[in-house]
Amino acid sequence: MFDVVAGARPNFMKVAPILGEMDRRRLDCQFIHTGQHYDDAMSDAFLRELRIRAPDVHLGVGSGTHGVQTARVLVAFEEHLLRARCACVVVVGDVNSTMACTLAASKLGIPVAHVEAGLRSFDRCMPEEINRVVTDAVADLLLVSEPAGLENLAREGIPPEKVAYVGNVMIDTLVAELPAARSATILSELGLCEHSYAYVTLHRPATVDSADRLAAAVQLLERISRLLPVAFAIHPRTRSRLVAGPLYERLSGNGRICLLGPQPYRAGLRLMASARLVLTDSGGIQEETSYLGVPCITLRSSTERPVTTTAGTNVVVGEDVANAWAAVGSVLAGQHPTGRPIPGWDGHAAGRIVDELVRRFGRQSGQALGSAAASTISAERPGPGAPPTHATGVTTAGG
Ligand code: UD1
């Protein structure tokens, strides 16, 4: 049995194609929802739209400090694993649920596969960076989505036989949903025209938890709104910081700034795909805009997804809003990078992920790890588009 874990909004678009591929191959798998995100807008709306089955197990952990949230997932997932007959846990991304489930499983001797392994911002102030480093240090199979991930894992001394380049599974969801997203009615509902507005998402603690930085970001949106209408999809964390002071009221009084809640998948994709530019501090949006060829300005001092800046459409401007304002000028002057295709971001990553899982852990439900480990699997090239690397295949633990 494969346990496929998701907890927070950015996980759902990553597990959807993996669960779909496992179902197509009739593999024995369960969908475990930790409940880190629990609002309809942050969770269930994505399950419905992406046709993800109802969770087989819901841990219901909810919000809390990092310690509390991580501990609740750890306790609840361990209890689940002690009851279940799980042969492999599949975790995705870098949220607290990813790290907590990895720790619970590995302490019980259950192998863990990490999808989106090897990403590093080299900024330990980001909670996600701690989650990435811990998860990759402990996981048994590291499934990498971007070329820098291979270098990072090699530098950290991870044996190459534990690593495979599979490409970007979130792009599978984007490719599958783009036609439906193109017919979403959100632009006309908001009175926005194709390629003539800015789409904004900001939610990271580093951007929104400091009153000064949040005020500077709001001022930036006001400046942009003099050039282009702004659609601002507001995360619950950001909303709570804005309403704590005068900023929310100031924004809502601006007729050129549309204040939106967290967007469902297709509406968000439509808003992104049709924007003149995107301003964000999200990780996934840097990747999605690169695939779509939409200019992205990232209001952060680092990115764990550097291929989006070398081959994509992303410019990381740092935390100073003056740089972001200059980047807006570059976009409008037609001087922003246009990007080119990125290896393995092709809509077929889930197939390569499930190939690796089956090769490594076997396809039979509840197959004992020992029997999977008995055969050594030769290294093979990954699916089409993946870059050549020494780390393109996996061997079993005993191999
Ligand atoms: C989490 C992830 C982050 C990801 C983001 C996407 C970690 C460390 N961070 O950050 O990597 O980019 O999700 O959204 O795992 N809240 C709600 N409803 C919900 C969930 C949260 O209102 O369904 C509110 C709560 O007040 C909570 C706050 O949002 O305190 C923050 O949520 P939390 O899950 O702690 O972290 P995110 O900022 O969402």
Quick summary:
The chain is built from 18 helices and 13 strands. The protein is α/β, with parallel strands linked by helices and about 400 residues long.
Task: Please provide a written account of the structure.
The chain has 18 helices and 13 strands. It is an alpha/beta fold. The strands form two sheets. It has a seven-stranded parallel sheet, with helices on both faces. The chain has a six-stranded parallel sheet with strand order 10-9-8-11-12-13, with helices on both faces. Helix 1 runs parallel beside helix 2, helix 1 packs across helix 17 and helix 7 packs across helix 13. The chain is globular. The C terminus is likely disordered. The structure holds uridine-diphosphate-N-acetylglucosamine. Uridine-diphosphate-N-acetylglucosamine (UD1) binds next to helix 1, helix 2, helix 5 and helix 11.
Topology:
Layout: E1 2-6, H1 9-24, E2 29-33, H2 40-49, E3 57-58, H3 66-83, E4 88-92, H4 96-107, E5 112-117, H5 127-138, E6 141-144, H6 147-155, E7 163-165, H7 169-182, H8 186-190, E8 198-201, H9 205-208, H10 211-225, E9 230-233, H11 236-243, H12 247-252, E10 257-260, H13 265-273, E11 277-280, H14 284-292, E12 296-298, H15 307-310, E13 314-316, H16 321-332, H17 349-361, H18 369-373
Parallel strand pairs: 1-2, 1-4, 2-3, 4-5, 5-6, 6-7, 8-9, 8-11, 9-10, 11-12, 12-13
Helix pairs in contact: 1-2, 1-7, 1-17, 3-4, 4-5, 7-13, 10-16
